[in-house]
Automatic annotation (TrEMBL):
It comes from the Bacteria. The chain crosses the membrane at residues 49-66, 87-109, 121-145, 166-188, 298-316, 336-356, 368-387, 393-412. PANTHER family: LIPOPOLYSACCHARIDE BIOSYNTHESIS PROTEIN WZXC, PST FAMILY PREDICTED COLANIC ACID TRANSPORTER. Its main location: membrane. It is a multi-pass membrane protein. GO terms for cellular component: plasma membrane. It comes from Caballeronia glathei. The keyword Transmembrane applies. This is PST family polysaccharide export protein.
């Protein structure tokens, strides 16, 4: 077999459509715009408003995780490019999913409002129901471009949508729209992204209802769905507890500390996984051993860089919050110091999951999520009783470490 050249930095000094530069540029611009939006709106509105909109977005995240089809990842990982009719079936499935989620959220809005202390903000839940509708009708050509590693085009679409989200959200916040400004910006950004997937990407799927021809994706995608369901428990479970027991004000502080840590640490690795998953998949199809060496190089770099960031951010936590968000957010500093550790582990997990999916073993990531869930079930009740919200955050650390350890063990054993 012809060897595949894999330098230490495989996309150095390149600006081709498939270069890592575009993923990094997308990361810097999109995450920067998201940071500007949430931090500015958080400073304008305060913890309670952020907590209220967080409940609405939490409902969307729960519904989307429970109904995750795994089709996007299956299209990227599969050996064959989907046919025109298969692409149409993918679009039909995703559009139907988005419509069902939106209708379900709208129907359950009064119930969720009463459960999470939002009886006066039902409109936030109704506005959030529009998000899965808009996302569901996007063209699945986006997945084909991802499979082909068209990172330049993807970066253009994602940055355009993020700019629209940030600009419109901030204008609405300054105009007095309150918590609705966050949702208005998100809806505008998703509408632009959906439009661009149809106008700038090909091949376009047929717009006739069809569910036939994608059964061969089920074996792969079912593990993605299972992982999404377990990750729903892992990623949203703590927020549900805080929202239910303590209300929007406490959730706002909890969510902002988590969000800031995520933006500074985990988002970089999650965005980089957009490059790593198709890149690992392509190299694995050509040369398994060379692809494995590439994976280990990325993993070591990520671990070293994240460790340094964690140290710096923990030391700078209090002045950072006071400068960026203001004195009203200082009670969230202890949580932030824990969350930077959690997000660093989550960033390592993003690299591990990219590799496992690329080699056709998504079930290992799902098993790791189940282990994490089991650890949380055992530790959260005790930790919450002894240390309150801080205990929940440390229990999350233990769960994330357990999941990462299991995936590393399986990867080494498969070598």
């Amino acid at each position: 077999m012809r060897s595949v050249r894999l330098p230490f930095f495989p996309a150095r000094a390149r600006f081709d459509h498939d270069a890592a530069f575009w993923v990094l540029l997308q990361q810097v611009v999109v995450r920067g715009l998201v940071a500007v939006k949430f931090l500015a709106i958080g400073r304008i509105l305060g913890p309670e408003a952020i907590g209220a909109v967080s409940v609405a977005l939490l409902a969307v995240a729960i519904a989307e995780s429970l109904s995750d089809t795994g089709l996007a990842q299956a299209v990227v990982q599969g050996n064959e490019v989907p046919s025109h009719s298969e692409l149409g079936a993918v679009w039909t499935t995703l559009a139907a999913r988005g419509a069902l989620i939106g209708l379900l959220l709208a129907a359950l809005a009064p119930f969720m409002g009463s459960q999470f202390h939002l009886s006066g903000s039902i409109g936030l839940l109704l506005a959030a129901a529009a998000l899965p509708l808009v996302r569901g009708v996007a063209s699945p050509a986006y997945f084909i471009v991802t499979r082909q590693r068209g990172f330049q085009k993807i970066a253009g679409i994602e940055t355009s949508a993020a700019f629209a989200d940030c600009a419109i959200g901030l204008v609405c916040a300054l105009a007095g729209a309150g918590a609705y400004s966050v949702l208005i910006g998100l809806i505008a950004g998703d509408m632009l992204k959906t439009t661009l997937t149809w106008t700038t990407m090909s091949p376009r799927p047929p717009l006739r209802p069809s569910f036939a021809g994608i059964g061969h994706y089920v074996n792969f995608s079912r593990w993605i769905w299972a992982g999404s369901v377990v990750n729903l428990l892992l990623n949203q479970f703590d927020k549900v507890i805080v929202a239910k027991l303590l209300g929007p004000l406490q959730l706002g502080a909890y969510q902002m500390s988590s969000k800031l840590a995520q933006m500074l640490l985990a988002d970089a690795a999650i965005a980089m996984s957009q490059y790593l998953f198709p890149t690992f998949s392509e190299h694995h199809r050509k040369d398994v051993h060379a692809a494995r060496r590439l994976f280990y190089r990325y993993l070591v770099l990520a671990a070293i860089g994240l460790a340094l960031f964690v140290i710096v951010l923990r030391l700078a936590a209090q002045p950072l919050f006071e400068l960026v968000l203001g004195p009203a957010w200082l009670p969230a500093v202890p949580l932030f110091r824990i969350f930077v550790i959690n997000m660093a582990i989550g960033a390592v997990i993003a690299v591990l999951v990219s590799w496992l999916r690329a080699i056709g073993l998504p079930k290992v990531a799902t098993h790791a999520s189940i282990i994490q869930a089991a650890v949380l079930c055992v530790t959260v009740p005790v930790a919450m009783h002894l240390w309150g919200v801080t205990g929940i955050a440390w229990a999350m650390t233990l769960g994330l470490g357990s999941a990462a350890g299991w995936m590393l063990f399986r990867i080494v054993r498969e070598a």
